[in-house]
């Protein structure tokens, strides 16, 4: 058990340290790098408690895709200056809103942690035999049977938010030249080349 | 305490025996790549250093070691130095789960294929970090390009992996190989194999998808500002990643370490040799494609990934699932 606890403290210290660095670091890109480190160490903690599927999914989804897009956006926008002005600027409206949100999250956490001892014993209420089969099989067995509604609802919510995001940023641009592969390939000499006899000193009128 | 140290020593020993062959084979594979490239163009390729020029990469590596490492004055030093290290580490770390035969694997974990997928999707960080930390236009553009490219092609690789997993019923790499004893998945899932191969080209930034380092537009992309050993680490990491993709392809589709047929003289060849032969075959295809295919334009690349590969592999996934369900061939699992 010694090795296990050594690893546990190793990963949790990194997780806590990097999450502190996310909010204190002045450079926004560094914040995102620390966020990634945080995700990775949380994924490792998941793997350590035996939830290897969830741990890997955290690595794939959060670190491999979501954080890349975060980084992408933070690098493209000039957020670094904004972050400075949030704290230094006099007319900052972000701090009250941020405070409200964080107090709400703190309250929610308190409720969850306070209600911890009243929860059902999941291990004993489950119909599955948890010891024999692997983590992934267990998830698969309940995901599409007992919790199909929640699973599908989560999917629908994600789809809706995707459509919403596309709708918000979508703009129809006019006068953009687009390449049509079908038209390109289906061109042949008879439809694109025309032979004309040019009279001397007259020229040819070309229709555009 | 002593026994922990002993376990640790044992593991380090095993890890060294994995990493050293990989580094050597990366060096050899660079030679093979340049050699094939040369032969396609009716040149000889590197043939001077050592027998057949085999030691060319070692000579190159020596040259890189003795070159000066230049860090641009405006670069973010920590991230700049970290980037090649991240690329190299991630490329090597993934090999921990690759089975070379039924027993020959460093760690046989339950979610092996997810681990491979996760590590290969982390590979993009080395490139983004390098491009951003260089604090210069071309590296930054290259990094942004590669980020979009790798994230896009990961999606279709993920769906292709799901296709294979549907037939296997397990995430363990050993189970995936053993499930192909009767029939390699390259036959029933041939379109998926082709798409996997092309996506692997895009994922490793190989030609024709080497837009992050398109020299005509971006000098050398994200590695413009790198020199000496740090450049060499990017370069080795890239080739280790290519080898990894070849290994993944041979495990998912070409039956891993299994021989072509289980008939007497052929099945005497030891399992790791088969695995290596398959990896080499896939790498040979990679090298050929580098030599014969011109570079894609960026919008064509994105179109290919999102509008062709993604829908096609999704439809094929539905087809595979329906086929397996209709003929009652879905894997039952061991529970």
Write the layout of secondary structure elements.
The complex is a heterodimer of chains A (208) and B (335).
Chain A: H1 2-24, H2 28-48, H3 52-76, H4 79-88, H5 94-114, H6 122-125, H7 135-143, H8 148-169, H9 181-186, H10 189-192
Helix pairs in contact in A: 1-2, 2-3
Chain B: H1 2-40, H2 56-66, H3 77-93, H4 112-122, H5 124-133, H6 137-168, H7 173-178, H8 190-203, H9 215-218, H10 228-252, H11 271-292, H12 298-326
Helix pairs in contact in B: 1-10, 1-11, 2-10, 3-5, 3-10, 5-6, 6-8, 6-12, 8-10, 10-11
What does this structure look like?
The complex is a heterodimer of chains A (208) and B (335). Chain A is mainly α and 208 residues long. Among the domains of chain A are: 7-89, NADH-ubiquinone/plastoquinone oxidoreductase chain 6, subunit NuoJ (Four Helix Bundle (Hemerythrin (Met), subunit A), Up-down Bundle), CATH 1.20.120.1200; 130-170. Helices cover 70% and strands 0% of the residues of chain A. The longest helix of chain A has 25 residues, at 52-76. Chain B has 335 residues and is an all-alpha fold. Chain B has one domain. Helix content of chain B is 66%, strand content 0%. Chain B is built from 12 helices and no strands. The mean pLDDT of chain B is 85. The A-B interface holds A 2-3, 29-30, 33, 36, 52-53, 56-57, 59-60, 63-65, 68-69, 71-72, 75-76, 132-137, 179 and B 4, 79, 109-111, 114-115, 117-118, 121-122, 124-125, 128-129, 132, 140, 144, 147-148, 150-151, 154, 158, 171, 299, 333-335.
Number of strands of chain B: 0
Number of structural units classed as domains of chain B: 1
State the major sheet of chain B. none
Give the number of helices of chain A: 10
In short:
In chain A, 70% of the residues lie in helices and 0% in strands. Chain A contains ten helices and no strands.
């Amino acid at each position: 058990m010694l090795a296990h606890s050594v690893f546990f403290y190793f990963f949790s210290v990194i997780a806590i340290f990097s999450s502190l660095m996310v909010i204190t670091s002045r450079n926004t890109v560094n914040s995102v790098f620390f966020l990634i480190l945080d995700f990775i160490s949380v994924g490792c903690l998941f793997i350590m408690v035996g939830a290897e599927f969830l741990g890997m999914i955290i690595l794939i989804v959060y670190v491999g895709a979501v954080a890349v897009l975060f980084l992408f956006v933070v690098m493209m926008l000039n957020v670094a200056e904004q972050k400075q002005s949030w704290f230094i600027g006099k007319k900052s409206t972000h701090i009250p809103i941020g405070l409200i949100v964080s107090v709400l999250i703190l309250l929610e956490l308190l409720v969850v942690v306070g209600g911890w001892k009243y929860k059902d014993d999941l291990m004993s209420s489950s119909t599955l035999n948890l010891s024999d089969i692997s983590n992934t099989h267990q998830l698969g067995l309940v995901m599409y049977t007992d919790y199909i509604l929640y699973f599908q609802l989560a999917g629908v919510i994600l789809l809706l938010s995707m459509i919403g995001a596309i709708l918000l940023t979508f703009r129809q641009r006019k006068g953009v030249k687009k390449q049509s592969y079908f038209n390109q390939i289906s061109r042949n000499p008879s439809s694109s080349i025309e032979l004309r006899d040019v009279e001397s000193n007259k020229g040819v009128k070309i229709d555009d | 305490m002593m026994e922990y140290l002993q376990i640790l020593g044992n593991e380090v020993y095993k890890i060294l025996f994995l990493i050293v062959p990989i580094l050597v084979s990366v060096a050899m594979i660079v030679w093979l790549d340049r050699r094939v490239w040369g032969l396609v163009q009716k040149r000889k390729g590197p043939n001077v250093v050592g027998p057949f020029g085999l030691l060319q990469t070692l000579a190159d590596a020596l040259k890189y070691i003795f070159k000066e490492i230049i860090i641009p004055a405006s670069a973010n030093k920590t991230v700049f130095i970290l980037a090649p290290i991240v690329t190299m580490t991630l490329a090597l770390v993934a090999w921990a789960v690759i089975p070379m035969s039924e027993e020959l694997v460093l760690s046989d974990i339950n979610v092996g294929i997810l681990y491979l997928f996760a590590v290969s999707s982390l590979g993009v960080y080395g490139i983004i970090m390098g491009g951003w930390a260089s604090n210069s236009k071309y590296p930054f553009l290259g990094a942004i390009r590669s980020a979009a490219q790798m994230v896009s092609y990961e999606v279709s690789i993920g769906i292709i992996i799901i296709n294979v997993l549907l037939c296997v019923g397990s995430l363990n790499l050993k189970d995936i190989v053993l499930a192909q004893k009767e029939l390699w998945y390259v036959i029933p899932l041939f379109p998926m194999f082709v798409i996997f191969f092309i996506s692997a080209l895009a994922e490793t930034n190989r030609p024709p998808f080497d837009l992050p380092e398109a020299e005509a537009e971006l000098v050398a992309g994200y590695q413009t500002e790198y020199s000496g050993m740090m450049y060499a680490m990017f370069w080795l990491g890239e080739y280790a990643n290519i080898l990894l993709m070849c290994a993944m392809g041979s495990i998912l589709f070409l039956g891993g370490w299994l021989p072509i047929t289980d008939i007497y003289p052929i099945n005497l060849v030891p399992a790791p040799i088969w695995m290596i032969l398959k990896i080499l075959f896939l790498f040979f295809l990679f090298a050929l494609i580098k030599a014969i295919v011109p570079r894609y334009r960026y919008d064509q690349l994105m179109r290919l990934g999102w509008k062709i590969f993604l829908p096609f592999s999704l439809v094929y996934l539905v087809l595979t699932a329906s086929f397996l369900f209709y003929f009652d061939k879905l894997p039952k699992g061991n529970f």
